[in-house]
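Bug report (template v2)

What were you trying to do?
Predict the complex of my protein with 2-(butylsulfanyl)adenosine.

What happened?
Run completed; filing so the output is reviewed.

Input:
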Amino acid sequence: MTQDSTIKAQMRQLIQILAKHNHAYYVMDQPTIEDSEYDQLFHQLKALEQQYPECIQADTPTNKVGGKALPKFESITHVVPMLSLGNVFNQEDLFAFARRIEERLPNQKIQYDVELKFDGLAISLWYENGILVRGVTRGDGETGEDITQNVKTIRNLPKVLSSAQVSVPALLEVRGEVLMPKAGFEKLNAENEAKGEKTFANPRNAAAGSLRQLDPAVAASRPLAFYAYGIAQCEPNHGLTSMSESLQWLTNFGFAVGERHFVCDSIQEVQEKYEQINAERPNLSVEIDGMVVKVDDLKQQQQLGFLSREPRWATAYKFPAVAALTTVENIDWQVGRTGTLTPVARLNPVAVGGVTVSNVTLHNIGEIHRLDVRVGDTVSVYRSGDVIPKVEKVWPEFRPDDTVEVHLPENCPVCESPVVMPEGEALARCSGGLYCAAQRIEAIRHFVSRKALDIEGLGDRWVESLLHLDLLKNVADIYSLHEHREQLLTIEKMGEKSVQNLFDAIENSKKTTLAAFIYALGIRGVGETTARMLANTFQTLEALQNADIETLKKTPDVGDITAEWIIDFFQAPHNLEVVQRLLEAGIHWDAPIAPTRQPLNGESWVITGTLSQMGRDEATQMLQALGARVSGSISSKTKCLVAGEKAGSKLEKAEKLGVQVMNEQEFLNFVAQYGNIE
Ligand code: IVH
């Protein structure tokens, strides 16, 4: 290929990408990339064109404004075209912009009007004899869409002009931006989420989506606002001489203008305002993506005129990108404390909104497939405000030839145990359970907790120190700690007495119940109640370990998925080894009450209100020992409600549903008939 054809091919590629995103942005209202990324690509193309003007393609987007109007609204041709703005991204470019102006206006004093650059949708409003007659979108800058009905629903926009200070012109065309202020956006999204409806990615999309509704009632229900930033036509002429005065004049009629705007005497001062506005950005009520710098004097504006489709007298000074392109160097899998495997993309470090990002979570394998992200890919990394950075999209056009699809690892990267991902679940997990180092802390915390083996003396401080000394690889190691007395004494603040207390607590924990032991193992889906049901049903640990899936599923409280998790747990050799060691250490229990002695087997009971002779926990245990399931809510399936003092809505509901109710004394009499149950 000759150099020319290589350049042309590069330009072609950029033009095609830009055209695709332009369509998505202007026509579909569904931007597929960040504005800053679009700008990057646009500037890449512009730079190539500047360097190789002989290669410029006829259909380049650098000399037109945007997309086409949708056919569903009536098309309107703008009498005064709605132009676009050039961009600067740093002080150097800003000063170059000022120099170009000074060269054209030698020896003139130049003042700059500095405004917020609203991140919404540009519209044009026509007022005839003070009455709002038409609202039109920018469209492609030449032709827009008639959205008058929707525009009229915007609450902060004057529909009729009147002013005590100035007379109302016969014709006024005001330009400005329609936005959804941040607070309204958050409220709308929260409401939509509560209703299970679609939420919007950002305020700009929400504003765009609202304005393009064919039904004005929908637009009316959305918290839109209009901010004016210019006058396109005024008859008779308003006689104003500057941009800043124009904004002031518009406020006489009730138009809102940006909450910050300044007139600066020098370009250095403009730079200072840029820093100030950037710092204040989070406190502003609306989203902005930069500021707009305009020559303030209207006569000077006229003298400067336009270059192609942009005024020479104004530019947008954009804030640093919140999205950036970089490459994926690796994809690692991290094992969380509960065994979940999370893919993390290791990136070629890139600055995004002032922060260097080198790792970003990809959440789960589903997200990897959705993005189709691979090692070697070029990706856009997005970050907004304090939000954690995320990979927004993969750029297939930059994908090297030799990439391979990412699959879920078959084995845990920490302990090598098989990775499992039950059907219908989004998250993959390490099946290593108690054996997996990554899951150790959580497993140990759970094992020693009150409803499990209840080793109160083994608090977080101990656990951390013991893990640090490598004395706790899994929960079975708790019972060999006494072999390491000397080492334990080296731990800061742990004297003879604390160590002895710990050993006593561990020793005391050896006598437990089968239910507490099953619960302590931390099998997924097996909470306290399920563990009790399993203990009562299977009676011995051995029977539970050998149970097949069908038998498990028949156990009260065990669903299909939990049954599978139980099977998985007891199939992992590591888990069996830990269980074996625990039993060898001397953990034991009395045989549970046989189901035949469980007269309330399968019944659902509810306890409410205050009990005077026992705690709710104690009453729960009594019922559970008799085989009942104690639930938190009343339904038609509830067998009986035990209602203590101050029973409220549950009592009402039980009465309404005709569920049997017992007071505390009746309950005590009832359980007494079964004798001593524990
Ligand atoms: S003045 C001749 N002022 O920026 C163009 N535009 O790239 C005069 N915008 O979509 C535009 N805030 O809607 C101007 N304070 C502001 C603005 C602003 C946002 C948008 C405008 C247009 C884009 C121009």
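What did the reviewer find?
The radius of gyration is 35 Å. Residues 83-85, 115-118, 122, 138, 177, 229-230, 292, 311, 314, 316 surround 2-(butylsulfanyl)adenosine (CB under 6 Å).
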